[in-house]
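Researcher: Next sequence.
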Amino acid sequence: MTADSVADVKREILVRHLEAWTPAALHRARRATYAHGYADAAPELAEAALRVFTEQSDLVRGRELTMVAVGQETADVARRLAAIQQGAEAAAGLTVHTVGGGTDGALAIALKAAGSARVPLLGFLDATAAGGPPAVTAVSALAAGKPAEAIIVLPAEGFAADDYRAELRAAGFPLVAAVELAVDEEPGEVLVFATASGKSLEGFKDTLWAVDEYAGVRYRDPGDPERHLIDISLNPHPGPLRRELLGHLAEVGESTVTELRTFALTETVYRAEDATRVLHALLTAGSVTRRPEQGRLGGDVVITAA
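Model: Next structure:
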């Protein structure tokens, strides 16, 4: 795997999501918090996040935006972030805290000290260098935000999609989607997005497919039994979604179009609109049937595997 290329994809996903999240969060509330975990493992990602905030300084006037960067040893991270702040136009209302002691142990304490409960809160936890997923306490601390979102990156090996989705839902994030970042047949890092908002999940999926391609990095749906690699595109290859929709219908018997769109959004790497596109193709091919047989493919139309 090309580590630099995967890092580029992660950075662009983070930056694009922050560019959308920041104005929305500060429009919703007077205060908002961004939490960046494992900051010392990849300080360039924390720097990229802070640059988004300094470049949008006009958006935080009259509002308070707090960035909390947590890691094991954060002295170097603190110097890097301070340099960015010094080199940029002062952003009114922007505060940056760096906290040592490790993300798993210190994140919850740092967020409480920053007064992050019940305000818009976004966490980015790239745990690939940690060798395993973030501690439940760290993820649960992020769920204290209102609304709360989390982007979590897991190591290439040992990811069980269904098990980790269940853990995140228990921690307070009912909607979870995941994508594997890969360049070949070997397992890749898994990027997970967790939220309580369907609108936020839709926005993240749009971001996911809008990023640029980097040196052959492609996506893989963790739920695809054939582990098909998908080129990053605004119109992604539908093969894995086709298989997953048919597999889901084989399990449940029948589903409405709305239920299948929700399945695609929350259980696959695809968007709800991709499910509609695939359903039209499946109906044309005779792979599924619909009830009623005629009319627009509305949300209440029932789909059954042929």
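Model: DSSP finds ten helices and twelve strands in the chain. The mean pLDDT is 92.
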